[in-house]
Write the structure tokens for this entry.
Amino acid sequence: MASVVDQARKAILAWQDPYLGTNLEKTGSVRDISLNDDTLLVSIRLGYPAAGLRDTIAGELEKLIRAKIEIKRINIDLDWKIASHKTETELNPQSRIKNIIAVASGKGGVGKSTTAVNLALALNKEGAKVGILDADIYGPSQAMMLGVADDARPEVEEGKFFLPMEAHGLQAMSMGFLTDASTPMVMRGPMIASTFMQLLDQTLWHDLDYLIIDMPPGTGDIPLTLAQKAPVTGTVIVTTPQNIATLDAKKGIEMFRKVDIPVIGIVENMAIHICESCGHQQHIFGAGGAEQVAEEYDVPVLGALPLEPSIREQTDNGNPSVVANPEGAIALLYRDLARRMAAQLSLTPKFESSLFSAVNVDP
């Protein structure tokens, strides 16, 4: 007859991770199952942050166990450990950053920056240490989106290193922290690329699980510089269902593949509008665009977000949806999207060496 521990293990392995589509044994997430008198002790460690699902997962596992065995008490300890994952290039992860994720779009106006900041905040709410870098040198927007005062400036160490600004639990850096909001950035391509790398490498990020980079739209100097000089773990492509947007999203995917940066998935923004008065649903920009691109390039759709005025209003006010209304429907959509992205990333090969190399660029 199977022992209590063996039966409990069998019950646990019947549970399918909703974000990975497999059981906890295949992901190596079952750390220990043991019996202490009349208490079953279960230790689970996921490879992605999931604070919003901790109680739900523990409850589902306990239900499966109790259907198999009679036990007085069950103590399920569920946490996560975020690893540093390999990049496709020969560049090693930086010492202060485990994973760099670029949020990009083939064109402007699809809500990329709004998605980037809410994605970063959602990862933080799920239990990860997160930073955000605004790579749009010409038109930085993260300072406003994070509610950082126009006259706030980062502290400087040793005459050349910036300390990231703190906002809503994120570490943040942006050209918007170094200039006035009305000051235009007049630079040629090589200077823009150099400025971006200085913001990345000369910021003293503090032990980040994820650095989200809000990329400028298009396929210009900064994406190419990022691919060549920064150890990017993967990218997320933001699009709308509109044909012209999905066409440009394809160009973005093609560009990142040519420079050996994996595409983690696609986010479809402004997917549907729901009338506040009558509840009528309308696909203003078309339907199914992201799914078609995802199928063509064999990448997942991480999530779809509605055309919702509050998303724009809250972000414009420096209080993005994830922090403005943490339990609201929009915030929960972003948190689900963040978990899906992090879970997809957790399936990729890990960077095993502890001897990370960081590249610093002198000003």
